[in-house]
UDP-N-acetylenolpyruvoylglucosamine reductase
Amino acid sequence: MKISQAVGNVCTIFTSHTQQQKTEDSSDGKIIYLKDIACAIKSQVALSAFTSYKVGGAAEWYVAPDNLEALQGSLEYAKEQKLPITILGAGSNLLVSDHGLPGLVISTRHLRHSHFDPQTGQLTVGAGESIPSLAWEAAKLGWQGLEWAVGIPGTVGGAVVMNAGAHNSCIADMLVSARVLSPDGTLETLTHPQIGYGYRTSSLQTSESPTDKGYQRIVTQATFQLQPGTDPAQVLAATKQHKKHRLTTQPYNFPSCGSVFRNPTPYAAGWLIEQTGLKGYQIGKAQVALLHANFIVNRGGAKASDIFSLIRYIQQQVKERWSICLQPEVKMIGEFQTAG
Ligand SMILES: Cc1cc2nc3c(=O)[nH]c(=O)nc-3n(C[C@H](O)[C@H](O)[C@H](O)COP(=O)(O)OP(=O)(O)OC[C@H]3O[C@@H](n4cnc5c(N)ncnc54)[C@H](O)[C@@H]3O)c2cc1C
């Protein structure tokens, strides 16, 4: 059964095909309409609107394709123009620099479709589908397997790349395969072992090195193995329980990126930060959350540079006290100034 197909399209005003490439000036920048592609590339788009931290400067160029053809066309354009590429899901694990990002930012949020196959118990979904929405949909159908993911406010693509996880489960536990578009335009299906999963990592992640940009592979779709056939009331109750637990233990009332640091086994990063006396510590409008010390929250009007400085400060303080180097889980992209 099909439960959703290409819903929500911010590109609606750009969706007519054009016979040849053309550029238009608008009040807030340029719009490039690619030949035969029903989605336009816009200049100087504020990324603060597309990140959960609500910070970040503008993308030099921004596109949100709603189908594979438009995605391939956008990639082709970036290649021709020698633009570096950044892939954006829901922006819930990103700290984007106040100076913005050069090149083309490709948002996957409109690559949306989902198919629950009752024969196999497999769920095949587009990269832009929201993980919490899928968790609720699966629960309503009585399919077990995604209850744990209801509090992760990302897309399918971001979750596959980050190996998102919670409550002792993670994406790697259920991923069957992912369809991936390479920078050279090749589309291939990678199976679970080919993705090389580890704790919050996968071989699909790139480093923050600018030389890696343009070589990022793009997840376009993923297939998950779930377990159909349970009473929906039972799966809904478990999903609600997970959501409730998150709301009481994590600060969902301020913009954040979730956990800032990976847990350095056997310690929890939040515990180390709390024991270092940093709960509530603030730089500008960025604050170590009072409810959970591994969260940095934007108390309203924070700059990316405030959050970045706080990340560095926490690392330095924890290193001094515990001789442990906390590794960020959040991806910091663009230019940041290191003090000293
Ligand atoms: C309140 C809150 C709670 C959170 N709780 C959790 C939690 O419990 N567990 C957890 O693991 N995470 C958690 N997170 C972090 C975040 O939601 C996850 O890491 C999520 O998987 C990121 O998905 P995204 O779509 O937002 O990716 P983004 O943040 O947009 O991108 C993350 C990285 O993935 C890349 N990427 C995104 N989509 C694609 C794609 N289609 N193809 C290739 N590369 C891609 C980006 O380039 C970037 O490098 C939380 C975040 C918030 C704000």
About this structure: The longest strand covers residues 218-225.
